[in-house]
Amino acid sequence: MLYLHCGCKVNQYETNAIAQKFIEKGYKKVEFDTKADIYIINTCTVTSMADKKSRQIIRQAKTRNENATIVATGCYAQISKAELEKMDELDIIVGNSEKNKIVDIVENYSNEKKQEVGKIEEEKEFQDFGTVTYTEKTRAVIKVQDGCNNFCSYCIIPYAKGRVRSRKPESVINEIKNIVKKGTKEVVITGIHVASYGKDFEDGTKLIDLLEQINKIDGLKRIRLGSLEPNLITEEFVERLGNVEKICDHFHLSLQSGCDETLKRMNRKYTIEEFEKGVKLLRNKFPNVALTTDIIVGFPGETEEEFEKTYKFLKNIKFSKMHIFKYSQRKGTVAAKMKEQISPEIKEKRSNKLIELSNKNEIEFLNQYINQNLEVLFETKTEGDYTEGHTTNYITVKVKAENIENSIENVKIIKREDMELIGNIKQS
Fold first, then answer.
1. Are 139-332 and 373-425 equal in CATH topology?
2. Predicted model pTM
3. 196 vs 129, 154, 201, 312, CA distance in Å?
């Protein structure tokens, strides 16, 4: 029996792929509260908290079955193999470029701590897992790209994932066609830096070209995009995107700061003026668009004046939701060596102020849909006899109805509860 743990959406995709390879060899996938013979922890290292969580799960796994084989793979394993080697609970460390060989590595393991961690920076080709079999029919994450060339000063990911590598369009199309035949209605196109898709191709193929091809797949209802870089949002891109009928009107644009001085220290390659221009383009093209973002507070050198610039900018833009992160030093990055590190107390204060603003904006965004009709793709049963799903602009909607999983229904919204909308299915 096998248990797998994953982190981000890219990890989620790769974890599904790894699980499939084990299942094809006769293994059975189980939940964490079930005793397993093999535990595979697909680690994240984007923050120090992610590192800590990975270590905790490794220790918990060993307590559940002291005779189990414990495997760490993913970004933390790639970056910090020396740190992980010190953990008595861990048996095998597998780097990101070795994930497709993980079944053989585990099956050839012989009770002596083992590591297979290659030089990810030398990887030139996208690691293609082929078609991943999904147990959740409604929505499937499709990884189309790996690596990043940007080297933002705070980010460890280029060192963990290597340079940009794009998946061949025909492989992407083939996988989506296969899972649509099995009932999948929506795909989430993701990658480490999905906006860079195609930069390593010689034929000039870009992300928008891929999206236009995906749009032609019969039976697919929705195409959703993962996190995007602001400099992708040009007039040409938005104009072509507007003609992709199946695209979801929810875009996550990673801002990180609303202050040009801070952005420059972060090595982000845009200004707040350029970012705002992209926002206006999307709002003009998609009337009900939901725009979400990531913000880092307490970046080295962020003065009170710089933070207030960010706050003012965010208040003006009015994102439908913001994900707020307190800056976390990542060993090996430029920002980790910067002077003027911000105290935890100031980070906490600034984080709370932005979370408050985010909650206010989200409530305002949701309230405008009360008494409106929305198309909802329903996914799962939840507490209270509700079935839960999402709109194209990624609003969570609940209704009391039976047997509507994996169907798209027209819903009349009657009220908001916390950050979810409650409605009734409109009878045809």
1. no
2. 0.91
3. 20, 19, 10, 30
Query: Helix count (H) and strand count (E) of the chain?
Result: 13, 17
Instruction: Reply yes or no on domain 2-118 having CATH 3.90.950.10.
Output: no
Residue 136 tokens, joined: 């959740």
Domain spanning 139-332 has what CATH number? 3.80.30.20
Q: Give the span between the Cα atoms of 96 and 117, in whole angstroms.
A: 7
For the chain, give the number of residues. Answer: 428
The count of other CB atoms within 10 Å of the CB of residue 124 is 9
Determine contact, residues 62/36, Cβ cutoff 8 Å.
no
Q: Please give the radius of gyration of the chain, using alpha carbons only, rounded to the nearest integer.
A: 22
CA distances to 145, 195, 215 from 206, rounded to whole Å, are 11, 9, 15
Here the tokens at position 129 are 């897992």
CA distance 3 to 178: 26
Where do the structural domains in the chain lie, given as residue ranges?
A: 2-118, 139-332, 373-425
Chain centroid, CA 379 distance in Å: 19
Beta strands per DSSP E along 102-149: 114-116, 139-146
Q: Could you tell me which of 232, 247, 245 has the C-alpha nearest to residue 279?
A: 232
Mean pLDDT by groups of 10 residues along the chain of 428 residues: 63 85 89 85 87 90 90 91 91 90 89 78 86 73 94 93 96 95 94 95 96 98 95 97 98 97 97 97 97 98 98 98 95 94 98 98 98 96 93 97 94 97 88
Report, at the CATH architecture level, how domain 373-425 is classified: Beta Barrel (2.40)
